[in-house]
Amino acid sequence: MNVIATLGASALLTALAASVVAIVASAAGHRFANRALLLAGRRAIIATALLTTMATVTLAYALITNDFSIAHVASVSSRNMQLEMKWASLYSGQPGSLLFWTWSMSLFMAAFTSITVPKIPWGAAHTVATMGAILCGFLVALIFLASPFRVSPITPADGQGLNPLLVDPGMLIHPPFLLTGLVSTSIPFVLGVAALLSGRLDAAWVRHARGWALTSFLILSIGNMLGAWWAYTVLGWGGYWGWDPVENSAILPLLPMIGFLHTLIVQERRGMLKTWNLVLVLAAFALAVFGTFNVRSGLVASVHSFAQSNVGPYFLGLMGLTVLASVILIAWRLPRLHAEADFDALASRETGLILNSYLMIAIGLVILGGTLFPVFSELLRDIRVTVGPPFYNDVTAPLLVLLLLLIVVGTVLPWRGGATGHHVRRFRKPLIVAAASWIVLGVLGMHSLYALAATGLCVTIGYVTFREYFIAARGLRAARGASWPSAVAGIFGRDPRRAGGYLVHLGVAIMAVAVVGSTVYQQQTRHIVSPGETFEVAGYAFHYNDLIAKRPGINGIEVEGLTRLEVTRDGRNVAVLEPGRRFFTNFPDQPTAIVAVDSTLARDLYVFTQGWDKDRKAEIQVFVNPLAKWLWIGGGVYTLGGLLAFGILRRDPVRATSPASGAAPADAEPA
Amino acid sequence: MRKATRRRLTVIVSLVAIGLVTLGAPREVRAQTPTGTPSPAATRPAPARPTPSDAQVLAVEQQLLCPLCVNERLDVCTLAICNDMKQLIRERLAAGSTPDDIILFFETRYGPKVRAELPRRGFNLVLFGWVGGAIGLTAVAAGCALYSMRRDSDRRLARAASHTSSRPPGSDDRWVDALVDEAHEDDAPRGTR
């Protein structure tokens, strides 16, 4: 008997039992108004988290100690793998990623149970029961369909090792962020379901969901950005977003979550959009489950489909159940989901926020259609087609330009509208900035319509954002005589959601400029050169020095071939780049690219080697990606904005607990 | 003697010409159709063309995907089959084939999945219809939502005739006003709060 496997499997089985206890105890506690049962339900959720933690630690131990009698360990690890890469092995492959998914979800739910559930007596039982049901659904898949503790009849001397594409430092953080981001959508969903079940349909659930939705949005965004960085530095095709089906699955839940973060403000402030907010959180969670199904079913072919098995249909059923239950619940409560306040004017910030969330759904539907179309084509016609970047670029470009326009309009429009003259005055300067940007960019030679429109709008977003900050900081300075830095910090301390949100918008604008620069104006060249030869790209001379072989002897890498290139410009040394290829002992047919990038604020020189012959004559591809570095800078600004929106600069602890300030207080029982 | 020499020369030249024709023709066909699949370009006489530039070759490669990998563009794929495809593209461009001919050739050989760009015809139009429908429906839904909210609001206002929106509309400095008010509150002596 394998003690480790038995311990892990037992922990998972007990966790399943605990999740069932959470459902039954909460339902019974609510039915019979029994506090002891309600408390038992909450503790069962925390117990589930502890037990899945125990299972995860057990699997990590098996990976570290090279226990190849466990099938999952043998399939994703090997003796010469570094310790940190074994962390990546933990969540690679089907059973490992499902365990990580369930573990991180249980941790989220335990945190929610400890922090928020005591504050919502109206929905405590409903949230705990819903969480128990979700955990139960995932644990059943984990135990009965894809157990990470299955013992092999024969113990191999060494494991197969990690999939070559995953042997990269980026894999240490990208999947954990993405998987955690996907599971975090469950918390706003749970609150939405609790509001529907309990009938507490005012802004209470939204207030409590806000912080969790912001967390989910931030983690998912970081996960997607890290994914783009991984694709850029590992896959070796010169880009960072390939509209791959699994990439699409990762971004799909983010879109309704962004919409929800905008429209929840309308429900909080005006008591409107109750139904729509519920639809958005339910859609985000359903799409997160769709992503799980998509990755695991092998239904849609993808470079990311490292784990395919028979759990696909199970998750399809789970997703169907989620959507069906959600629709029934909303339909049941629809008569009570009416607005509490008047909608004063169409030309108001409310309209901007509403249109933003609808636009997010439109983008989501377009991406979903493109992702699933190859499946339908094969199903109905038996013809496999590829829906690739040209399609997505064509159909999303106008929508993204519209999104940038809405950011400008939404920032400029006031709440509850105003007089026409008032609007004209507010929009005058942004319009001048936009028009001036378009003229200048056009004169400078930017003739692509979407590139021109997007870049001009990004400049305008920068203008309106800084104008908002300037006006607010100037007001604070006048009122308190504070210094400029102190006044700016004061803005983020006093209204973090709004000030942080503006910073997120600025990050989006910076990223959009980077996307335009690095895609529309990308240059790609290919050169076949012998050692000692030089070729030129965009004014840079690339001197191919020689082919170097390295044998790291770790992570299953057999040999790395590196083509040493000395890059100069006008006789000045710019960089020494060593792109190449990495070959793996256990995966001889899957060499991976070693990408070399010389990055400045103006451009990236992105180089990779396609191969070489026996005379060391190498085939080298060079991409010049203008402004690519700004994608990561914009991502940083976006992330900083998201973090500041939590109110980490808030100075007044009293305001931190008031309803208007951001943190959710405890709710009284409804009358 | 002179006549005989001329005849011999004529025979030699004729034989060389025939030899060149018979050697040259099959070679061109082999280059055009490595698997014997007829191609529109193969049936056309290939006029003398300059060697295609790397940019021309890359432009065609970027429109194709690797037939074995998943969603991997041909120009960056390093599999042997892709290297063969790249070589073939170069040869066909040199032989005078157009990019469309070449893409059609590979589509015939490996199926529509090798096209990076989905052709806007036939069943594929369903997807473009979906895109239009999704955007249109979402726009209509957003319009309906805004309209119904406005209508409900008007009804409520009409019912409560005494109720008029006395609150001032938003102003440029609404955010500033709130921040400044808070700042004043913070600065006020404790007893006056």
Descriptive keywords:
heterodimer; A: about 675 residues; alpha+beta; 6-stranded antiparallel beta sheet; 4-stranded antiparallel beta sheet; B: about 190 residues; mainly alpha; Helicase, Ruva Protein, domain 3; elongated; disordered C terminus
Helix content of chain A: 55-70%
Main beta-sheet strand count, sense and barrel state of chain A = 6 strands, antiparallel
Chain pair with largest interface: A-B, 84 and 62 residues
Beta strand % of chain B = under 5%
User: Helicity range of the residues of chain B?
Assistant: 55-70%
Indicate the topology.
The complex is a heterodimer of chains A (671) and B (193).
Chain A: H1 3-31, H2 35-64, H3 71-76, H4 83-90, H5 94-115, H6 124-145, H7 174-184, H8 186-198, H9 204-235, H10 245-251, H11 254-270, H12 274-297, H13 312-333, H14 349-381, H15 389-412, H16 420-443, H17 449-480, H18 484-494, H19 496-520, E1 523-529, E2 534-537, E3 540-550, E4 557-569, E5 572-577, E6 580-584, E7 592-594, E8 596-599, E9 603-612, E10 618-626, H20 629-644
Antiparallel strand pairs in A: 1-10, 2-3, 3-4, 4-5, 4-6, 6-7, 8-9, 9-10
Helix pairs in contact in A: 1-2, 1-6, 2-4, 2-5, 2-6, 5-6, 5-7, 6-8, 7-9, 8-9, 8-12, 9-11, 9-20, 10-12, 10-14, 11-12, 11-14, 12-13, 14-15, 15-17, 16-17, 17-18, 17-19, 18-19, 19-20
Chain B: H1 2-32, H2 54-61, H3 80-94, H4 99-110, H5 125-159, H6 174-187
Helix pairs in contact in B: 2-3
